[in-house]
Amino acid sequence: MTPPAGLFRWDDHELDKVTEMVSRKEIGVAGQALVQTYLKKGARVPQHAHPGAQWIYVLQGALDVSVSGQPTITVREGEVLYVPAESQHQAEARDDTFVLDVRT
């Protein structure tokens, strides 16, 4: 069954401090998520995978992302990277970086 429409406010969600260098807010419904992630310059996100696809939209800063052994891709402000489902990926912030992820 499809969930009903819903309105969410980022201010209603607590900031989750993942590490000293990474924090985030997440809104999720029916296996999908919208995630704001804040990374300090030099922050690293270790290799991992998601069951669904991921869209990474860099709103501010720059992020180096490695996906499934491909050459590292630098995603800059205003750019969007698509990561296929089940793909191993990792990232490192080149600058203080603000990212919006969509996970499906």
- Number of helical elements: 0
Query: How would a crystallographer describe the biggest sheet?
Result: 6 strands, antiparallel
Low-confidence stretches: none
- Helical residue percent band: under 10%
Structure class: mainly beta
Report on the architecture of this protein.
The chain is mostly beta strands and 104 residues long. It has a single domain (26-103), classed as Jelly Rolls (Sandwich), CATH 2.60.120.10. Helices cover 0% and strands 54% of the residues. It has strands at residues 16-17, 22-29, 32-39, 44-48, 54-60, 62-67, 73-76, 80-83, 89-93, 97-103. A 6-stranded antiparallel sheet has the order 1-2-3-10-5-8, with no helix packed on it. A 4-stranded antiparallel sheet has the order 4-9-6-7, with no helix packed on it.
